[in-house]
């Protein structure tokens, strides 16, 4: 008898992650930068998350766009239960969680679901069978509206070739232990260490493997379990995914990793002429992946790719409002690209960052900022793409400051803070202005939750409440990475945390609409 989980890890829930690239504001900005008209986010739209996990990303969309209809699908009942519980606590009525498989979705009647303006599937394609991948892309073909955007992410063979046999070994070690998937992770690392110390030639012939494994050891054990211990784990090539999406009448328009859309910084100089010569999109993108050693793609597809007239394109771009995320600009503004890091010219980026920190502005207004005044528009757009991708700027979500969005987002943030006080692990709050989740320290979510409950911003009382919540949730404060057991020291650290939140973080959270301003 076939297992309901198709060999996917279900004995431990996935992490409570949220992904900025899956949000409508991000995808609409990416589409515009790529020269395509996105769905109008100021109007009601429909959004689907296929393989939603615990649903945190979908809930973020539901809260920040209360005028939208959100559907989140996952076959794991534990994930769906968590998402529904959080939605109920937050008071969100515009999100619908479905415990179902891709086969069941594909078999639904046409009128059982709406047509969607956005369909996203993050971290699914490489971890399911070929049959389920076919069902997934078929669902996109059935359900995506003309002009709609689809987002698919997956592991690429060019960056994972040396991990294919390692993943198979990891799964064999886990299967032989009989323990819960995440509990097998320490034994997996120990076994790999012993194999290397024994002189296994595989490590010598794959010199980059050691660094990759060292980085993976820093990840949550639940992530490792879901990433590497499934029955299905497949690296994919762009051409295979593009072919499948062609069958769904969807064409590739670019990457949600914005720097990857700028060839000059994402592909080695010597490879760029080869890409120019390649007329076929599949060959061009495959050369890109070979050039950068691409490990993970975040592809955006569009159903229909009519040419967007330049006047309309520029008008839509110029109307986009950009906000500062709160990420401080270092002395050297360094961006991560697929082929390494690059340092931005301070004469170009410093004025934009200073303007962002001073207040939001439209891209049209940015055209007047030196040194971009009078320069080709494309230079400004590339700079903005890097600032967004680097986490310094973020496009505003239309209607993000509406009373409905502020109210819905406040409900979700209060629910997150409440669940964290009970021992959950969600170090993020949601910004209605940006339409995305903002990563914060766990203690910051607790202090923010206390403030959102209406308690005054008074250090002593906030400190007492924070210590009480930490104790109730089974947490301890830390100093230099070690738990603090002395009550007096714990109170001193909690006081420092509260002062930091009130003095440094609360002004930013108010600016982003997380706290009432």
Give a brief description.
This protein has 23 helices and 16 strands. It is α/β, with parallel strands linked by helices and 517 residues long. Among the domains are: 20-156 and 236-302, Rossmann fold; 162-228; 321-395, no CATH class.
Topology:
Blueprint: H1 24-33, E1 46-50, H2 56-64, E2 69-74, H3 77-90, E3 95-99, H4 102-107, E4 116-121, H5 130-143, E5 144-155, H6 157-160, H7 164-177, H8 185-197, H9 201-205, H10 209-216, H11 221-228, H12 238-247, E6 251-255, H13 263-266, H14 272-277, H15 281-292, E7 296-302, H16 310-318, E8 321-324, E9 334-337, E10 340-343, H17 346-358, E11 361-362, H18 363-366, H19 377-389, E12 393-395, H20 403-421, E13 428-431, E14 436-439, H21 442-452, H22 459-472, E15 478-479, E16 482-483, H23 487-511
Parallel strand pairs: 1-2, 1-4, 2-3, 4-5
Antiparallel strand pairs: 5-7, 6-7, 8-11, 8-12, 9-10, 13-14, 15-16
Jot down its keywords.
single chain, 517 residues, alpha/beta, Rossmann fold, three-stranded antiparallel beta sheet, 23 helices, 15% strand, globular
**Biggest sheet: strands side by side, in what order?**
3-2-1-4-5-7-6
Outline type: globular
Low-confidence stretches: none
Largest sheet: 7 strands, mixed
Quickly give the structural class.
alpha/beta
Binned strand content:
5-15%
Residue share in helix: 40-55%
What is the second-level CATH architecture of the domain at 20-156 and 236-302?
3-Layer(aba) Sandwich
CATH topology tier name of the domain at 20-156 and 236-302: Rossmann fold
Q: Supply the CATH superfamily name of the domain at 20-156 and 236-302.
A: Vaccinia Virus protein VP39
Report the top-level CATH class of the domain at 20-156 and 236-302: Alpha Beta
Task: Please state the CA-atom Rg, rounded to the nearest Å.
Answer: 23 Å
Kindly state the number of beta strands: 16
Helices, by number, come to: 23
């Amino acid at each position: 008898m076939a297992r309901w989980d198709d060999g996917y890890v279900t004995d431990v829930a996935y992490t409570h992650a949220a992904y900025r690239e899956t949000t409508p504001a991000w995808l609409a900005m990416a589409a515009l930068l790529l020269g395509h008209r996105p769905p109008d986010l100021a109007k009601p739209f429909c959004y689907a998350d296929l393989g939603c996990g615990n649903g945190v990303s979908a809930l973020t969309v539901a809260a920040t766009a209360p005028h939208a209809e959100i559907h989140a699908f996952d076959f794991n009942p534990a994930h769906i239960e968590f998402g529904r519980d959080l939605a109920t606590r937050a008071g969100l009525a515009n999100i619908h969680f479905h415990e179902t498989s891709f086969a069941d979705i594909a078999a639904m009647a046409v009128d059982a679901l709406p047509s969607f303006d956005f369909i996203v599937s993050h971290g699914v394609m490489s971890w399911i069978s070929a049959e389920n991948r076919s069902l997934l892309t078929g669902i996109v073909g059935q359900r995506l509206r003309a002009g709609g955007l689809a987002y698919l992410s997956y592991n690429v063979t060019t960056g994972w070739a040396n991990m294919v046999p390692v993943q198979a070994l990891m799964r064999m070690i886990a299967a032989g232990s009989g323990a819960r998937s995440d509990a097998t992770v320490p034994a997996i690392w120990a076994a790999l260490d012993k194999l290397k110390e024994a002189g296994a030639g595989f490590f010598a012939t794959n010199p980059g493997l050691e660094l990759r494994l060292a980085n993976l050891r820093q990840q949550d054990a639940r992530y490792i379990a879901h990433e590497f211990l499934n029955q299905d784990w497949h690296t994919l090539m762009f051409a295979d995914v593009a072919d499948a999406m062609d069958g769904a009448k969807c064409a590739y328009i670019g990457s949600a990793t914005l720097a990857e859309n700028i060839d000059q910084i994402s592909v080695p100089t010597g490879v760029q002429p080869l890409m120019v010569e390649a007329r076929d999109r599949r060959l061009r993108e495959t050369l890109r992946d070979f050039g950068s050693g691409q490990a993970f793609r975040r592809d955006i597809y569009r159903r229909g790719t009519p040419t967007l007239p330049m006047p309309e394109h520029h008008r839509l771009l110029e109307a986009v409002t950009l906000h500062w995320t709160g990420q401080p600009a270092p002395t050297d503004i360094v961006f991560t690209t697929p082929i390494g890091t690059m340092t931005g010219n301070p004469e170009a980026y410093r004025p934009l960052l200073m303007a962002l920190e001073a207040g939001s502005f439209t891209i049209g207004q940015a055209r007047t900022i030196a040194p971009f005044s009078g320069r080709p528009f494309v230079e400004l757009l590339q700079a903005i793409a890097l600032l967004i991708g680097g986490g310094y700027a973020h496009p505003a979500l239309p209607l993000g400051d509406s009373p409905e969005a502020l109210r819905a987002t406040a409900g979700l943030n209060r629910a997150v803070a409440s669940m964290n006080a009970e021992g959950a692990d969600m170090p993020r709050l949601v910004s209605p202005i940006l339409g995305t989740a903002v990563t914060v320290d766990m203690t910051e979510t607790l202090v923010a939750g206390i403030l959102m409950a209406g308690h005054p911003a008074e250090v002593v009382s906030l400190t007492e409440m924070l210590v009480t919540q930490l104790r109730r949730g089974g947490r301890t404060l830390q100093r230099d990475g070690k738990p603090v057991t002395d009550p007096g020291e714990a109170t001193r650290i909690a006081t420092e945390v509260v002062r930091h939140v009130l003095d440094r973080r609360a002004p930013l959270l108010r600016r982003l609409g997380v706290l009432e301003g």
